[in-house]
UniProtKB/TrEMBL annotation:
Signal peptide (UniProt feature, chain positions): 1-20
Protein's UniProt name: Porin
Subcellular localization, as worded in the UniProt entry: Cell outer membrane
Membrane association type: Multi-pass membrane protein
GO cellular component, one term: pore complex
Pfam families attached to this UniProt entry: Porin_4
GO biological process, one term: monoatomic ion transmembrane transport
Organism the protein comes from: Achromobacter arsenitoxydans SY8
UniProt keyword Lipid metabolism present: no
Porin domain boundaries: 7-345
Main localisation: membrane
Database matches in CDD domains: gram_neg_porins
InterPro entries found in the cross-reference section: Gram-neg_bact_OMP, Gram_neg_porin_domain, Porin_dom_sf, Porin_Gram-ve, Porin_Neis
GO MF annotations, alphabetized: porin activity
Length: 368
């Protein structure tokens, strides 16, 4: 009898230890293909054909895990490293875990509190609205809504509530948005470029509504601040009718531009348009309409139109209305592997009169 009780106690002890063991998952994405890009405007014409990387989804590998701390509390972490699958080099300015490096605490009742480098609330919430998600260069919402272009900040504290009746709220603050920028690092807090990100969304059944706000506070010792404080307010909505999923978004950007998307090197304003720019007095209204259409059991066709109306020429030297028309297609070969193709055409690109940009590509993506 005593031996039976002892054995039962030992088994219960082992079960408790096993239950407390943390879970760690290795995962990743490899995305590679062939692409074409052409820029043509007054005094400039150039094109490029070659290998492309991370078009549908940025190539990456990562580790994520959690540990049960009891009473519903969990320790959580995520380390995610981006890389160029065409040459094996690290992404995100050579950071080891440039896509995300966070640790925090989570509870189903009160939400998640995380510390470290990660994407902003605006980037995460608006990505689920966009038919192109955060993918496909020149096509996704980040082109016209610069704070939605997978903007990642270093040194961030972020809190997200659990979903309550479809509602979820998130807010984050970065003490130094970019440790790699010499203009944004200093001993005093005010010597760093700081960021605020917040959002509220409602997801219930086929409806998804997101309201976001992002802001950058320039460093006191920065030569590019000029007293400007870039801000972006954005509202997006999508509704899935099953036969087609419709999407629309509106954004208002003032006093500059956030990460944006780079123009090819050597084109007009390529050094300015793809980086955080503080431009006092700049304003722009951004619009997006999109749709996603299932094609058979394995395919999906999606398209969008973006229109950006700037108020002046302080950002890139032009003030023309930019229009971008994009279409894409994916076909699933399995649950983890798919093929994709896309094309995009932009007029008065980067708000420059007559500047046209064409981008197209085909590729394969594998998830593990």
């Amino acid at each position: 009898m005593k031996k039976t009780l002892l054995a039962a106690a030992m088994l219960a002890s082992f079960a408790g230890i096993a239950q407390a063991e943390p879970s760690v998952t290795l995962y990743g994405v490899i995305d590679t293909g062939l692409g074409y890009n052409k820029i043509k405007g007054d005094g400039y014409s150039g094109s490029k054909l070659g290998m492309i990387n991370g078009i549908q989804a940025g190539s990456r590998w990562g580790l994520r895990g959690s540990e049960d701390l009891g009473d519903g509390l969990r320790a959580v972490f995520k380390l995610e490293s981006g890389f160029d699958s065409a040459n094996g080099q690290r992404g995100q300015s050579g950071r080891l875990f440039g896509r995300q490096a966070t640790i925090g605490l989570a509870n189903d009742a009160w939400g998640t509190l995380e510390f470290g480098r990660q994407a902003t609330i605006g980037s995460n919430y608006l990505a689920d609205i966009d038919p192109f998600y955060t993918s496909y260069t020149q096509s996704n919402l980040g082109l016209g809504f610069s704070a939605a272009n997978t903007m990642r900040w270093d040194n961030m504290v972020m809190y997200r509530t659990p979903s309550v009746n479809g509602f979820e709220f998130g807010v984050g603050y970065s003490f130094n948005a970019d440790d790699t920028n010499a203009d944004q690092t200093g001993f005093r807090t005010a010597d760093n470029t700081r960021g605020i990100t917040a959002g509220l969304r409602y997801v219930q059944g086929p409806l998804n509504v997101a309201l976001t706000y992002d802001q950058l506070n320039g460093a006191n010792n920065s030569s590019i601040d000029n007293g400007a404080t870039p801000r972006q307010y954005a509202l997006g909505v999508s509704y899935d009718l099953e036969v087609v999923k419709l999407a629309a978004a509106y954004g208002r950007t003032t006093d500059g531009w956030f990460v944006g998307q780079d123009l090819p090197a050597g084109t007009p304003f390529s050094d300015e348009f793809g980086t955080n720019r503080f431009v006092d007095g700049f304003k722009a209204n951004s619009y997006m309409l999109g749709a996603t259409l299932p094609v058979g059991a394995s395919g999906s066709l999606f398209a969008s139109w973006q229109h950006v109306d700037p108020s002046n020429s302080k950002l890139t030297g032009g003030d023309e209305n930019m229009n971008v028309y994009s279409v894409g297609y994916t076909y699933d070969l399995s649950k983890r592997t798919n093929l994709y193709a896309y094309g995009s055409y932009g007029t008065d690109y980067a708000f420059v009169d007559g500047l046209k940009s064409t981008a197209a590509g085909v590729g394969i993506r594998h998830q593990f």
